[in-house]
Amino acid sequence: MSKNSKAVVTFILGAAVGVAVGYFLNSDKKDEMVSKLRYQADKLKDKFRRKKEQFEEAVENELS
């Protein structure tokens, strides 16, 4: 592939991503999707916190 054709493909791909992001930001589903992402992030934070506490307890028990 020549340098010019790679540039054209990259430009078209960038434009498509830009259009998709613009559509997402203007859609009515944005708030619903953001809400779902926040919910999933909160679940992951809780899971991480529990694993951290379990690890700390295991280290404390091992050192005692």
Radius of gyration: 23 Å
Mean pLDDT: 87
Percent in helix: over 70%
Residue share in β-strands = under 5%
Total strand segments: 0
Class by alpha and beta content: mainly alpha
Overall geometric form = elongated
**Total domain count:** 1
Largest sheet, in brief, is: none
Q: Span from first to last CA?
A: 65 Å
Spans of 5+ residues with little confidence (pLDDT < 50)?
none
User: What is the helix/strand order?
Assistant: HH
DSSP helical segment count: 2
Protein name: YtxH-like protein
Coiled coil: 34-61
Organism: Chitinophaga skermanii
Pfam families: YtxH
Keyword list:
64 residues; 91% helix; elongated; YtxH; YtxH-like protein; coiled coil
Explain the overall architecture.
The protein has two helices and no strands. The chain has 64 residues and is mostly helical. The chain has one domain. The termini are far apart. Residues 34-61 form a coiled coil. This is YtxH-like protein. It holds the Pfam family YtxH.
